[in-house]
Amino acid sequence: MKLVSRDIDKNGCGSMILIPEEAEDMWHAYNLVCVDDTLRSTTIRKVQNESATGSVSVNKVRTTLTIRIETIDFDTQGCVLRVKGRNIEENQYVKMGAYHTLDLEMNRKFTLGKHEWDSVSLERIELACDPTQHADLAAIVMQEGLAHVCLITPNMTLVRAKLETNIPRKRKGMCQQHDKGLTKFYDQIIQAVLRHVNFDIVKCVLVASPGFVKDQFLEYMFQQALKLDYKLLLDNKSKFVTCHASSGFKHSLKEVLQDPSVSSKLSDTKASSEVKTLDDFYQMLQNDSARAFYGIKPVEKAAEQQAVEVLLISDELFRSMDLKKRKRYIKLVDTVRDAGGDVKIFSSLHVSGEQLGQLSGVAAILRFPMDDEDSDEDD
């Protein structure tokens, strides 16, 4: 989703101009528009013209309308959001108060106005419009004196930092200068990683270079992390994966990502925390079954009592064509987060996600034991 402009006053009243850029953005838009909001977008309207002789001709004209929303319909197959309401602004083709239906489509701009933009709506806008929220892969492509720190989303590669340093060559009696230049260069990369890589979202960091530069850098980085107590780097040490690149330029990323051995490493590293969580769940199920629930009803009940410590949920459930179900899962995630619980969203394309799918796609590790009354009733 692209945010074109934002005009909201201190009371939360105002409007935003947005452009949906992919199918998932239409889902975000569906969750943003509410009855009684105002919506402005281009549309096609049939207009009747009567000539002097009395003959009537019907033409289609493209015009921009602003309506007060009364009904909302979302077509999941065609990714079209259909919104119906009354016209509230003067228009040469449509009378004030006349009904019209606006179709919101991908890559077509619309303006959404609300009496109050609440925290949930603003959070959704932030999630939909910030590409870094979807970037679960980071990469450092480097050679001596040149490095690119990038975030990789499903649709694009974002260069967050380009670092260039002149490093003196290794000559007789000049080794000290070379090492000093290299140390300064490595320090700059470490600061760029700390500043731009959000390890809560990023599940894997590729470190690619020609020769042994990547290995020397990682060794230096973790030495510095121990010395300067960079806990963030030490806690996420397992997320760093080394691989070969022909240069430190951004275009080298393409060859790195196309390497099948790198792809398999990535899928394992990205899912490593999920695999560990699933193992913890099975251990809990074996040793203390009153603290391990699975199935939507028991987990929802535990979440209502703020008992969920870790929620395990498959990303497949959020792609459900049944909108009520999809909203139900989103509500469950929000409830767990509000109570301070941890939410792990599993990829259905990985083995751990497939295993979770066999347990209905929803499971939870609880803070304290609870009776699973729903299971007793089923029995």
Task: Report on the architecture of this protein.
The chain has 379 residues and is of the alpha+beta class. It has 3 domains: 2-129, SH3 type barrels (Roll), CATH 2.30.30; 133-269, eRF1 domain 2 (Nucleotidyltransferase, domain 5, 2-Layer Sandwich), CATH 3.30.420.60; 273-378, Ribosomal protein L30/S12 (60s Ribosomal Protein L30, Chain: A, 2-Layer Sandwich), CATH 3.30.1330.30. The chain contains 12 helices and 16 strands. The strands form 3 sheets. Strands 1-2-7-3-4-5-6 form a 7-stranded antiparallel sheet. It has a 5-stranded mixed sheet with strand order 10-9-8-11-12, sandwiched between helices. Strand 3 and strand 4 (56-75) form a beta hairpin. Helix 9 (296-304) packs parallel to helix 10. The protein is globular and about 100 Å long. The model is unreliable at 375-379 (pLDDT under 50).
Q: Could you name the CATH topology of the largest domain?
A: Nucleotidyltransferase, domain 5
Write down the CATH class of the largest domain: Alpha Beta
Tell me the strand order in the biggest sheet. 1-2-7-3-4-5-6
* Mean pLDDT value: 86
What's the number of helices?
A: 12
Shape annotation: globular
Helix content: 25-40%
The end-to-end span amounts to 47 Å
Known CATH architecture of the largest domain: 2-Layer Sandwich
Sum up the structure in keywords:
about 375 residues, alpha+beta, SH3 type barrels, Nucleotidyltransferase, domain 5, 60s Ribosomal Protein L30, Chain: A, 7-stranded antiparallel β-sheet, 5-stranded mixed β-sheet, 12 helices, globular, disordered C terminus
